[in-house]
Each structure stands twice: as structure tokens, then as C-alpha cells.
Amino acid sequence: MTRRGTSRGTKHLSTNKDVLERLKPLHPLPGLIIEWRRINSALTKVVFPLQKEKCFNPRLDMPRIHSMSQTHTATGRVSFAEPNLQNVPKDFAITLPTTIAESPPPGAWDEKSSSKRGGRRRQSMMNVKPGTNSTGVAPNFSVSMRNAFIPFKNGVLLAADYSQLELRLIAHLANDERLRKILNGGGDVFRMIAGELYRAPAESIKDNQRQHAKQVCYGIIYGIGAKALGEQLGLTEEEAALFIDKFTSRFVGVKKYLKETVEQCKKQGFVKTVTGRKRFLPSINSPNTHAHSQAARQAVNTTVQGSAADLVKTAMVNIDKRLTKEFPSCVMTHRHSHPDLQSSRSKIRGRPSNFNVPHPIGGYFVLQLHDELIFEVSVNELRIVAQIVKTEMEDAMKLSVVTPVKMKAGPSWGNMAEFEL
Predict the structure, then answer these.
(1) Whether the Cβ atoms of residue 307 and residue 401 lie closer than 8 Å to each other
(2) 415 or 330, which is more confident?
(3) Is 198 exposed, middle or buried (0-12, 13-18, 19+ CB in 10 A)?
(4) Are strands 363-369 and 415-418 parallel, antiparallel or unpaired?
(5) End-to-end distance of the chain based on CA atoms, in angstroms?
(6) Residue closest to 327 by CA, chosen among 388, 368, 374
């Protein structure tokens, strides 16, 4: 406050996740704020909306949730609302500190200070590490919301996920021979790419080097700068720039493709996906540097992510055709009225009495998570449905790279194990 009673403008300090992560070693409070935000986000974005939207399905004899889907997005990805089931997080653990108090700076209290008045109390406080209890072990709590999603009776959930789909698409679009050879060769893709970057055999690559290669791959594809990449990798800007140079020098086709995509967008004003779908980007020729840079990133993003969306949608249509041919009852979704339910009692919310309707057979598509498709399948037809899904996903488009699909199955969304055909 000034002498006249007015307040001076003050700079608001950031409290985002990156800042709080850097402050965690200094005091337990930043860690507590991070965990509170994670829990609050899960409650407000997932739990409360799901409780609001669920309704009882008399045919399946269980509560169900039906999201509103939007298929006409800019990139082509399918989005959901009311509620957004794509936001349901994977299982995570939280650590709640037990001691929240003023922490003296390291070394502020030594053996001499403990003999002073109150020194014993201060010394005992220093023996408890921030975020831990008296035994030195932080109390961990597991949060699992996906386990709440279960299939109908005598059913399982089947998840089919494309492996490194966007990386494979850019290898196809860029016609990069070196990258295509790695992707078509099988094995751990990012470990092999790390071997190219570090000029070392793939089997000698460490886990942190593999992670660096993965972040570099996707960072470069979507126009990340050396500074931002360095922050992600925990490296200096110069070291991150060296990583980018290594990647572009080893995979020259990708570098050429990214440059040509932006230049072509400047001339035509739009970009195309692998199926020919256009997206117009008028800001690509804007004199505003920020607007131009954003449009350039969107140009590359659309060709790669939009092509991935087109491929996934093609697979979804082909799978639906095969399933309805194999299992005629799959023509009706869980929201359709069943012929045996055309009575007044079917309109009553709640569990009807003396209700005897056969449970569904075959497989039902229930959710798309970008490159992953989730189906609800009756147990007896799991292997048949899984074979249909895997075949149609891997053969959705003829590309110069293979598009392998990994499959999982289980009694709930949060409890799935790898499923081999």
C-alpha cells in the first residue's frame, strides 16, 4: 500500500504444477496442494458428473452412463461430453504429508542449538521428513476410478490399442526409409530410435535414454522448441537442441516433411489428412508471429493426428459391419428399445420385478480413447470378437508401415490384462 492508501500493482507468482514440483523438496505444503488438485479434479470432472448422468438400464439390469459424442472436430478426433469419459484417469497413488509446519532451512539447527530453550522440540521436528510419518514412510493411498466401470452380466471388457500410431503415420507420410525400417522391424521402437540417437546398440539403451527418445520423437513432430523440450527432459536448452539436431540428422525425411507441410499450407491455406480431408488454417499467413506459429503447429498436427483419427474411424466402421454380420443382435445398441421391453414397466426408472430378458451376446463398442477402442463382450464370444477387432484395426488402411494392435481384457476397465489370440 502507498501512503495515499492505494495498492501498487504486484506480480502474481505462478503456482502451476511445474513450479510446485520444484518446491516440493523444500516444504511438504506444495506436495499437499498437488495431491489435493488431483483428487479435486477427479471428483469434479469424473465422479460428480458420472453420478449425475447415470441411469438404470432394465435390459442389462444395471446402471449405465451414456455420453454425448462429437465426431466433427477440427482434428477429426471423437470427443465426449456430459460426461467426458475420456477424462477418467488411470489408477494413481497419492501421498499425503502428515506434518505441515514451518520448516527451518537445512543446517539451521545443529547439536548446539538443541541445548537451547525449545531446541529439543525443534530437533524432533527435523527428524520427521516432509511428507512422511514418524516411521519415515509416507502414507500412500491408491485411487482407482476405472474399476467402477464393469460390463454386463457374463461379460468382459476388451480394449484394443494401436501401438505408436502417430509415429507410424508420420513415417508413412514423410516416406522416411530409416524410420520405416525401425517401425516395421518389430521390437521396442523407442529403444531402437534411442540407439540411433545415441549411436549405440538397442540392447544397451537404458530406460531414461528410451524415454528421452520418445519425448524427442513426439516433441519434434508437434513443433516443440529446445527450451520446452529441455524442461521436459530435465536438460539445458543447449543439450535439448543437440537432441533435436541428432534426430533431424538421422531422420532427414521427417525434417523435410515437416518443412514442406508448412510451406504447402502457406500456399494453399489448408492441409489434408491421409484420406483427403481438408482443414483450412487462415492464420498461417498472419503477420502476427504467435498466430503464425500456432497455425504452423496445427498444420503438422492435423496431418498426423487427423490422419490417425481417420484411420481409427475407418476401423470403427469396418468392425461394426463385421460384428453386426456375425452377431445380428449387435445391430441394436444398449440404448435401443428391446422388443421384449415394449411395455409400460420399461419406462419405470428402477429395477422391474419378474424381469427375464436374455443378456446380450457378441460385442458392443462402448468407448473410443483416441487410438484405443473399448468393447463390451460376452465371455463366450470374446475370442471371436477379439479376432474381428484386431484384424479390422490392423487392415483399416494400406500403409507403408505396419499398424500393430495390442489387446487387453478383464472384468473391469481398471483391471485388464494382456490378451493374446
Answers:
(1) no
(2) 415
(3) middle
(4) unpaired
(5) 71
(6) 388
Burial state string for 224-243 with b = 16 or more CB within 10 A and e = fewer than 16: bebeebbeebebeeeebbeb
Residue listed under C-alpha cell 422388443: 339
> What confidence tens digit (pLDDT) does each residue in 236-293 have?
888 888 888 888 888 889 889 989 999 999 999 999 999 999 999 999 999 998 898 8
Nearest to 48 by CA among 145, 138, 128: 145
Check if the beta carbon of residue 323 is closer than 8 Å to that of residue 362: yes
Coil/strand/helix, residue 201:
coil
Whether residue 372 contacts residue 416, with contact meaning beta carbons closer than 8 Å, is answered with no
Give Cβ neighbours of residue 6 (< 8 Å, ≥ 6 apart). none
Q: Which amino acid, one-letter code, is at 401? A: V
How many whole angstroms separate alpha carbon 123 and alpha carbon 107? 11
61 assigned to active site: no
Spatial separation of the C-alpha atoms in residues 257 and 263, rounded to whole Å: 10
CA distances from 330 to 17, 37, 262 (A): 45, 41, 44
Q: Where are the beta strands (DSSP E) in 173-315?
A: 270-272, 278-280
> DSSP letters along 321-369, please?
HHHHHH-GGGGS-TTSPPGGG-SGGGGSSS--SS---PPP-SEEEEEEE
Where does the pLDDT of residue 336 fall: very low under 50, low under 70, confident under 90, or very high at 90 and above? low
Q: What is the grid cell recorded at 415?
A: 483391471
Distant-in-sequence, close-in-space partners of 229: CB < 8 Å, separation ≥ 6: 215, 216, 219, 235, 240, 243, 244
Proportion of the chain above pLDDT 90, given as a percent: 29
- The residue annotated as part of the active site, out of 61, 161, 188, 320, is 161
